Amino acid sequence: MKTTLKRLVPVLCTGVFIFSGCARQQAVKADQAVAPSATTQQAAPARIEAPAAPQQTAPTTTALPATTIKTDPIQSQPAALTKNETALAGALEKIYFDFDSDVLSDAARKTLTDNYAKLKTMPNVKIRIEGNCDERGSDEYNLALSERRAQSAMKYLVALGIPASRLSTIGYGEEKPAVAGHDEAAWGKNRRDEFTINK
To answer: How far apart are the first and last CA of the chain?
Structure first.
């Protein structure tokens, strides 16, 4: 056991001296080369490789930002809406529902058919259908009902020919009343689906 320790002590001391010497050399090399990212294992073995690494990586690091800058504007251009598309999207009409119902009335179907005609003229626009309820009923029930109302409108538009990928739904329950009030006139205006641009 003592013999093993006697053999290990000089090896460990030598390792410490070598490691501390290498650490100093790496710090000098990193300062001289000004490499953006150099690992300690790559810089330690040879002095010739350290200056060569920055020369090889410099062109690639300057080329990468240039390619990402070029692709970002190209990707964002199709998503941009024209003034006409924005105006048409704002012209989409709301639909209304009977109390405690997600069934589309004849008037709601007619409005959705008109909205379909507008959506056909703006194929780049994605629409979010927002379902709403009046204040009666529990929060949980109204959230579920408002989501079903939005889904009803979406299914109808998809059946007319709008791709489902252009439509999304959300239910707000009673959180976003259109009209303040506690009577049938206010409640009737709050039981609705609205159509907004999905950005």
So the answer is: 73
State how far the Cα of 24 lies from the Cα of 29, in Å rounded to an integer: 9
Question: CB-side exposure of 93: number of CA atoms within 13 Å?
Answer: 14
Q: Helix, strand, or coil here: 167? A: strand
Nearest to 92 by CA among 122, 50, 67: 122
Residue pair 117/158 in contact by the 8 Å Cβ criterion: no
User: Under a CB-based contact definition with an 8 Å cutoff, are residues 104 and 156 in contact?
Assistant: yes
Taking the C-alpha atoms of residue 37 and residue 134, their distance in angstroms, rounded to an integer, is 59
For residues 123 and 88, the answer to whether their CB atoms sit within 8 Å is no
Q: Is the distance from CB of 152 to CB of 174 less than 8 angstroms?
A: no
- pTM for the full model? 0.58
| Residue 24: other Cβ atoms inside 10 A | 10
Q: How far is CA 104 from CA 96, 157, 186, in A?
A: 8, 12, 19
Neighbour count for residue 191 (Cβ, 10 Å) = 25
Q: Is 6 helix (H, G, I), strand (E, B) or coil?
A: helix
Alpha-helical segments (H) within 77-170: 83-90, 106-120, 139-160
Residue-wise pLDDT for 2-28, tens only, equals 556 566 666 666 665 555 554 444 444
